[in-house]
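Researcher: Before we compare anything, I want clean individual predictions. No alignment, no superposition, just each chain on its own. First chain goes here; please echo the sequence and then give the structure tokens.
Model: Echoing the first chain and its structure:
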Amino acid sequence: MDTLKLLEAIFLGFLEGLTEFIPVSSTGHLLLATHFLGFRTAGRSFEVLIQLGAILAILSVYFAKLWRVALALPDDPVARRFVLSILVAFLPAAFVGVLAHGFIKNVLFETPLLICITLIVGGVLLALLDRLDTAPVHRDAMLYPPGLAFRIGLFQTLAMIPGVSRSGATIAGALLMGCDKRSAAEFSFFLAMPTMAGAFAYDLYKNRDVISLDDAGVIALGFLAAFLAALVVVRSLLDFVSRHGFAPFAVWRIVVGTLGLLALWLYG
């Protein structure tokens, strides 16, 4: 197996884990990185399948809380409402993702110029949202009502466009609907679990005939790197957002998008 490709897989896995749960678009970062590195796997399966590492990272951090919810489901209406809220928030992205899977993978994933533009535009919008001075109505992500969760889920569908950011879209929707920054970020964690697991399972099914043994090894390395990086991010993000808000991520998006445009202009 090519040593350089293995090193690239580790780097890309680390990049996935670092960016998956912050509002900067992990998919956008991965697609730009793979474009300039010339890194390819059959069916672009690597970029989706290594997300399993990030999913397991968030499950490991929230396992105790989720286990308590599972045990309380038969008797606790609050636990049932939380699960319902996550499910209804997940449905719009599931519907759009299945319906537009081919267009997303074959057209949007292959358009680095679009990714750079959405990174920049999303950064500007995130900076503006971060400056909103409104009194939050919702402060506990586990108490978001199903109607609110569904509307946040509609925002998540925007993340089908690479560069928009799944977490960024859900956080933006939550902020616009009266949620505070910390709970908005935490709800994006909870919503990530079914969304990313569904994307992983569906992409694995669609690419089951084209994934080679060589790709499996590369994906495994990317998965491990993504797990370790995401573990650090999930453990520290909520405190970071509480102190600094989302402005640093807005700047990050604008810088990466601008550098991407410059690189495309110079190198194609």
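Researcher: Okay. Second chain, same rules.
Model: Second chain and its structure:
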Amino acid sequence: MPRFRPEPPHTHGGPSRTAILLVNLGTPEAPTAPALRRYLKEFLSDPRVVEIPRWAWWLILHGIILNTRPARSARKYAQVWLKEGSPLQVHTERQAKLLQGLLGQQGHDGVKVAWAMRYGRSSVAEALTRLKAEGAQRILIVPLYPQYAASTSASVMDSVAQWMQGCRNLPELRWVRHFHDHPGYIAALAASVKDHWQRNGRPERLLISFHGLPRRSLDLGDPYYCECQKTGRLLAQALGLETHQYAITFQSRFGRARWLEPYTQPTLEQWGREGMKRVDVICPGFVADCLETLEEIAIECKTVFLAAGGREFRYIPCLNERPDWIAALATLTTQHLGHWLTESDQEPPAGGDRARALGAPN
């Protein structure tokens, strides 16, 4: 088998195109147990996601998890599945289209915007191959994770690097490491909360919930916890909140190991028992609604809070297609594109043919 994939047809002296690839986590193809099994197998086989010895994890994954979890997860996905498909995929695709439109309005018509999923389809490799076939020679990779983590942002770049290993004629690449404190992102979050409060009134407390990671990740040097804390602090400052008016927690704990604390669900249970009447929850670690926000937070955590004695629970949706978020995304990407936006097309070699480019005699 050849080491490199065949190169797309190339015209010497053709335009050098620029592209943006938005990448989110991934989603099963359908809310069914077989589809979830395929998705979870790919996701949980990533050594970036689960950092325990491979042989031990293989036994757990194939002996227990893939035989028990797919059906349970499929039932959860079925509760939030949209007519167009998975919420995460639907929102990510819409974000890409809106960003494409806004960049065009700003005069950047030549920039192509595409989207991909780290796990499942459309994969990072599939998206990069399409962009390359369309003539993209400069590609900005944008993992849609505001806070950097090895298990998310770095895993995206692993998939990019794997694709590069099979590519003979590499495009120029850049990537966005994180945007946890980007002014446009924070402003869009704050505006979404203010809009929600204007419609529904203010709660007794705002819960800012991030996806959890094993506590060990912090000990090993992963900056995720610190970046979550900064995002939460900046959001609270933008909203004018005192420290007793909000809390930062972590959700989606899996297994028996200690994860980043405090945990979201136990916090809500405690608040309910203490007689808190209303709480609002926002999940800034996700820029698009997904299973973890629509089912885990808006359904499961709401049930827990009300059962513990709380009276009113409101979930504040992710940024999704908010115009201020798309504007912030346009600012973020154009800042990273830099001179790519104004760089002129490369001139063809003298004579414009491959023989002259290689220095062959006339």
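Researcher: What stands out in the second chain?
Model: The longest strand covers residues 17-26. Additionally, The longest helix spans residues 54-80.
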